[in-house]
Every structure is written in structure tokens, then in C-alpha cells.
Amino acid sequence: xxxxxxxxxxxxxxxxxxxxxxxxxxxxxxxxxxxxxxxxxxxxxxxxxxxxxxxxxxxxxxxxxxxxxxxxxxxxxxxxxxxxxxxxxxxxxxxxxxxxxxxxxxxxxxxxxxxxxxxxxxxxxxxxxxxxxxxxxxxxxxxxxxxxxxxxxxxxxxxxxxxxxxxxxxxxxxxxxxxxxxxxxxxxxxxxxxxxxxxxxxxxxxxxxxxxxxxxxxxxxxxxxxxxxxxxxxxxxxxxxxxxxxxxxxxxxxxxxxxxxxxxxxxxxxxxxxxxxxxxxxxxxxxxxxxxxxxxxxxxxxxxxxxxxxxxxxxxxxxxxxxxxxxxxxxxxxxxxxxxxxxxxxxxxxxxxxxxxxxxxxxxxxxxxxxxxxxxxxxxxxxxxxxxxxxxxxxxxxxxxxxxxxxxxxxxxxxxxxxxxxxxxxxxxxxxxxxxxxxx
Length: 440
Prior knowledge:
The chain is mainly alpha-helical. The protein has a single domain (2-340, 387-405), classed as ABC transporter involved in vitamin B12 uptake, BtuC (Orthogonal Bundle), CATH 1.10.3470. 65% of the residues lie in helices and 2% in strands. The strands form two sheets. Strands 1-2 form a two-stranded antiparallel sheet. A hairpin with a 2-residue loop joins strand 1 and strand 2 (172-174). Helix 2 (15-37) packs antiparallel against helix 3 and helix 3 packs across helix 14. The radius of gyration is 24 Å and the shape is globular.
């Protein structure tokens, strides 16, 4: 099975880019087909694809950022959600409008442009990475993991604290809102993006033109589709940045540290310095991904950033295969489409196809007919009705299957080597015992 998958990926036209495009095409076609079965209107189909695109993009970006830590440098970071939280909260602090008495928002911000807030959020996430890295990178493997997950919980509880609910900064009434969270009432992200390129009027023209297909307020659907497309552009930027980083001398040292830090250190490389720089860059990218994920949602609360999001990102990376940027995007897309959003769509499609039957209300009435061997259908209906609650179980089953059948991920062993040239033997040529090539 492994050989067949590897041969298939090698034959896809366009290399890695062709493989990603093919995967996305298959996933989108599957969602369109499910929408047809469910009887979605054009508006429903487009909204479904917009949500799918959004989650594919954010999970792909975060898997790429994690790949820099784990796949390139071997840093076991399970505090990803903490850097995401710092990114979006600091961005809100800088870019929210200045507080006005009597406004709906209980706290304001510094009123700076959105791009300034985004840069500030990324910088804050990188600096938090530095603070964590200085003492923690002397630790390895599971010890570093404990430090990073503890950091993410410290960040969450800090934002929950009443001490930071509101305070004075540069004479302004600002804050993080405590458990109530923060209203994200700054400039519309799409308006800021298109206005920066002088395209806002053209975008409004696109919204007006879409009235023909969706007469009843098409802007939310168009906004979702376009924002998802913008996020895919960011995925391409992440991929390009990490590819260039991996191919640079800096990236080759990171991969050498991943393989054997002691050897890299013995060759005169300041491994701690390289790890700190890698950790800070990855944390900045995680902060940016957190900003892009939540900046358009209107509000954000600290309890959104629980550790389960970190584990979702790890699952995405494992699915695609750590050490491969292409695998990170593939894993993010597969996770978002099949494991994160898929169970809900699968339930709706099966309920549409299968006859309508009332599902048992609890596990006992569902399992007892199956044990007696009389009727398996009550258990099937109960499982379908509870598929959203069983999402974590499904993810666990997939992980167990991967560990047994594809431990290197769906793409197989694609880990990028530390060498700047290909040191492996060419395919189809026999290698002689003296290191040369036998004539065929």
C-alpha cells in the first residue's frame, strides 16, 4: 500500500504543486456533491465552500509553522494556541478604536491602523517565543512540551484575569476584557486589504454584480469566499518562506540539529542560537495565523484558546508527514475537510439518503439490540446522531491507523535532508559495492 501511494504521488503532473491542486479539487468536488445531495441552493453551496476554504487555509498555515519547529528543528512545541492568542489579543489592543464613553465596547484600543496591529501581534508572539525559549530550549523532547503547554495555559488564564480586564496605556482606556472577551470592532479586514491596493471600489462592484446570482444580500457569502481565497494566498506565502528557509544555510543547520544536535554543536554551530531564532520565527507565524483565523469573527474570548486546537494542528501535521512543507498543506487540507468539518456533512448526507428513523436517546438502548444480535440499526442511528460528539474518537482512530500503516504520513518519507544536494542514488540505477554505478 505504501509503495502504491508513493508511486501515485510521484506521477502527479506538476510535482508538489500539482499534488496540492489535485487534492483540493477532490475535496471541493466531494463537498459540492454533498451539497447537491442535501439540496443546497447556490448560496448554500458557495457558503459551504467558503467555510471549507477558510479551515483548510488556517490549518495549513499552522501546520506549516509547526513544521518549522518540529519537522525542521525537532522542537516539541504543544503550546501553539498560546502564541495564536497573543497574536490576536495584541493586534486588537493596537488596532481597536479609542474608547468612547457610552460605546458598546467596554474597553478600547490605541486606534492604530490594522497593519500596525498585525505586525505588533506577530512581534509579541515572537517575543513570547523568546521568553519561553531562553530557559526551555536547554530542555529536550517531552520536557520542552511540558513547558510550552504550561505557557499556553498561563497565557489563557492571564487574559481571563480581572487584572487585565481593563487598564490605562498611553493615557487610553484599554484592556483584554477578561472572561467576557474583546469586541473586534476595528476596520473590516477585507476593506483594509483591498483599500491598501486601491481595489475596494472594484470589490464593491463584484458584490453588486453577484446580486444577479444571489439577490438577497450576497455580501456575506462573497466576503467569505474572498477571505478564504486571501488566506490561501497566505498559505502560499508561508510555503514559499519556509521552503526558502529550509534551503538556506540557516535551514540546513536546523535540519542538522534535528538529526543530531551534538554533532552540529561539535562542528562549531551555536545550536541554542539557531533554535531560538527558529522558535521565534515559528511563533511569529503562529501569531499571524491566529490573527487571520479570528480577526473577522467580531469578538474573541480566552476560552477559545484551549489546548485542543494545538492537538488538532499536530494531527494535521502527522497526517501529512512532519518534515515536509507539502505534507503540512496536505495534512491541513485533509484534516479540515475530513476530520474537522467532514463528520457534520457526512451525518447530514447519510440522514438525507437513509430513511428517517428516531435515534435512541442514550448508549444503552442503542447497544443492547446489537449485543443481542437482533438489530444493528439502533446503534447506527445513535452513532450518526452523535457523530459530532464522537469527532475526537474518530480522530484517534485515524491516528492509530496512521501509526500502523503510514507512520511517515500520507505522503510517506518526504523529510527534507540537511544536504544542499541530493546524496541519494538515482532511481533505476544499480549501485556498485565500491559506490559507483553498475552498467546496465
